[in-house]
Write a sequence for this structure.
């Protein structure tokens, strides 16, 4: 399989993630979009690992690390979203703007 | 004992700090602390002087105060030679008795403690000047005195006239100090150091060019003109009489104004190397002694008479130095300190008794205040130069030196001016004596003799004023003590009998004329007012004050001051305030970037990353 396919796929996935982070109002959707971006990175890592035939499979090891970090991040993120919802009865990220001028 | 000389200025300095900090909680407002400090210094000074009389060598010690770079340092050291020893005794003696006097004189003053603190600091400043082995340290003491003079003249600042006099004294001496500092830098630059010894070495060995020496000496003399009240900067000294009388005695008669004379004496090899500057000193001194003696003749305020007399006598010392009479000048400084301090303190006792400075409200006080009168008479006759009182010997020595140097044109001028001044001095002394103590009492109230605390210093100083002149006689006289190896030896003073007779005759003539004119205690207007031109000129002090007021002060206050004020307020402050204001305005616009919208921040972040990626790939990647 040529390297191009996974790269194009990863770029596509990343772009969807960027769009979601910048455009969605729902905080949960924003978190999910971040996951998309992280997974696009994972695809890249695995693809390059296979392409370069790395003996230490460092690309795949890195991907595992990213997955672990993403899980932790989403745990904290969802906890924050939950607290925001309890306090303000909304998860719209553009309504959470107390830290401004 | 010479190793302990540093204690002499150090003790009053400590006393100043102690009085200032805890003086009000000490017995008698801290005054005993100041008196004790200067008394110990007095004993040390006397011991040092007796050592010098016994033939002890000069002692010099020093250390580095502030090393700068590899081969340059600001030195800190003292020279204890004959000149310093004589001055130490003069300063500590006068300061000691002035402080004892002040305990009685200033009692009940609302700033009594502060007054003694300032006296101590002032004494320390003068002693630093006396002991300094380098010009920078000398300048430090010099400036301490300047600021203390300002504080003390303005001691009763509630009266705006006193505050103005203080400012005038400070600013006028500052004009001279500017030249003094420039002179220090010229000599430092030429000699490569501030040490007086090094500068003198450089001058003597010819390493410093004669043009530089002349420039440096002339600039140093500017400082002496300001501090010692020489023409044309003498105008501050009479106004300085606004201060309390002990201050006038200590500062404006015996010590601070003597600092200028001392400076010339200390740097005498430098001055001697430049004939032009010596001539300049002699000319300025001749002018000063004459105009000041004439002004003393028309003053109604007894302290102003003494102030102009001080200016005139300081000019006498300068004239002595100017005609090459190094020891004669210092000798006169020595004797003058005693009798002028005495005169001021006695005048203070009189003022205390009649509650007025004005001689037209005095008269007939000889009967009411016999002790004060007796001591005042001793001081006055010493001032007039009547043998065998102290002033006679030193004045005679200056006239002798001028007489012996008459091959130089200026010495003739000095001699004539000195003779005329001797006559005028006797005249105003007689006038002052008759108006104050003679004839009948003209004021209100009942004058009475001063208390013991005031009379004691008077009596001691009267003894000094009577006997101080005898240190100039004999083989081992003051001229031997203050001799330094760098100056050509003068030997003991020669007494010229003809000159003695002439000077005494002139003085007696002045006294007799004064007696004839003022015997009935009438104000002098009766006589001098018949010469309208002379009278108005003298009343206006030769219009010098008006000239300074109209010419300098008005020009500075009228045009220069607003211009600099505008520059400071608009440009300097404008730049500072503008920086602050600009930042605020900018921030007021930029704050809206902080919108609180997390997605905006994220968008900016992405754009930034894209931007960096573009830059890296396009520019660095190649």
């Amino acid at each position: 399989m040529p390297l191009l396919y996974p790269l194009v796929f990863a770029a596509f996935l990343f772009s969807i993630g960027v769009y979601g982070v910048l455009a969605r109002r729902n905080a949960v959707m924003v978190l999910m979009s971040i996951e998309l971006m992280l997974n696009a990175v994972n695809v890249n890592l695995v693809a390059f690992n296979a392409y370069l035939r790395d003996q230490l499979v460092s690309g795949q090891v890195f991907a595992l690390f990213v997955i672990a970090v993403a899980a932790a991040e989403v745990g904290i993120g969802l906890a924050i979203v939950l607290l925001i919802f309890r306090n303000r009865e909304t998860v719209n990220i553009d309504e959470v703007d107390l830290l401004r001028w | 004992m010479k190793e302990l000389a540093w204690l002499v200025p150090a003790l009053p300095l400590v006393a100043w700090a102690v009085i200032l900090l805890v003086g009000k909680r000490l017995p008698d407002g801290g005054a005993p602390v100041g008196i004790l400090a200067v008394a110990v210094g007095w004993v040390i000074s006397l011991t040092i002087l007796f050592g010098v009389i016994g033939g002890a060598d000069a002692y010099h010690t020093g250390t580095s105060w502030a090393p700068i770079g590899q081969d340059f340092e600001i030195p800190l050291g003292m020279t204890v030679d004959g000149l310093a020893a004589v001055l130490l005794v003069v300063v500590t003696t006068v300061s000691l008795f002035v402080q004892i006097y002040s305990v009685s004189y200033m009692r009940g003053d609302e700033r009594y403690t502060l007054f003694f603190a300032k006296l101590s600091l002032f004494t320390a400043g003068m002693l630093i000047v006396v002991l300094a082995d380098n010009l920078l340290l000398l300048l430090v003491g010099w400036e301490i005195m300047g600021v203390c003079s300002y504080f003390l003249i303005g001691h009763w600042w509630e009266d705006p006239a006193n505050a103005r006099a203080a400012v005038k004294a400070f600013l006028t001496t500052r004009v001279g100090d500017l030249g003094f500092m420039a002179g220090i830098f010229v000599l430092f630059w030429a000699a490569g150091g501030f040490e007086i010894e090094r500068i003198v070495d450089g001058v003597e060995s010819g390493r410093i060019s004669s043009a530089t020496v002349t420039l440096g000496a002339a600039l140093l003399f500017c400082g002496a003109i300001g501090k010692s009240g020489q023409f044309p900067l003498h105008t501050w000294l009479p106004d300085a009489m606004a201060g309390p009388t002990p201050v006038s005695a200590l500062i404006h008669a015996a010590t601070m104004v003597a600092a200028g004379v001392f400076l010339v004496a200390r740097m005498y090899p430098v001055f001697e190397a430049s004939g032009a500057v010596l001539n300049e000193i002699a000319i300025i001194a001749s002018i000063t002694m004459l105009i000041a003696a004439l002004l003393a003749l028309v003053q109604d305020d007894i302290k102003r008479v003494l102030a102009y007399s001080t200016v005139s006598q300081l000019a006498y010392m300068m004239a002595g130095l100017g005609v090459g009479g190094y020891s004669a000048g210092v000798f006169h400084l020595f004797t003058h300190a005693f009798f002028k301090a005495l005169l001021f303190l006695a005048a203070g006792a009189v003022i205390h008794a009649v509650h007025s400075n004005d001689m037209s409200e005095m008269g007939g006080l000889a009967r009411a205040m016999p002790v004060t009168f007796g001591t005042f008479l001793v001081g006055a006759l010493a001032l007039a130069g009547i043998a065998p009182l102290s002033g006679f010997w030193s004045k005679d020595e200056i006239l002798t030196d001028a007489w012996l140097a008459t091959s130089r044109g200026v010495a003739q001028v000095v001699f004539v001016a000195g003779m005329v001044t001797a006559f005028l001095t006797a005249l105003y002394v007689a006038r002052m004596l008759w108006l104050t103590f003679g004839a009948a009492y003209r004021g209100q109230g009942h004058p009475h003799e001063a208390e013991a605390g005031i009379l004691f210093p008077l009596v001691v100083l009267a003894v000094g004023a009577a006997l101080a002149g005898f240190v100039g006689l004999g083989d081992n006289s003051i001229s031997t003590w203050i001799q330094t190896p760098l100056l050509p030896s003068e030997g003991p003073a020669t007494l010229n009998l003809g000159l003695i007779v002439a000077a005494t005759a002139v003085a007696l003539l002045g006294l007799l004329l004064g007696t004839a004119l003022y015997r009935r205690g009438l104000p002098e207007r009766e006589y001098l007012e018949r010469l309208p031109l002379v009278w108005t000129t003298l009343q206006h002090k030769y219009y010098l004050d008006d000239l300074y007021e109209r010419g300098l002060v008005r020009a500075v206050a009228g045009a220069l001051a607003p211009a600099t004020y505008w520059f400071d307020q608009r440009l300097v402050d404008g730049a500072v305030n503008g920086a602050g204001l600009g930042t605020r305005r900018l921030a007021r616009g930029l704050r809206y970037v902080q919108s609180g919208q997390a997605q905006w921040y994220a968008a900016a972040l992405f754009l930034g990353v894209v931007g960096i990626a573009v830059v890296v790939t396009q520019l660095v990647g190649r």
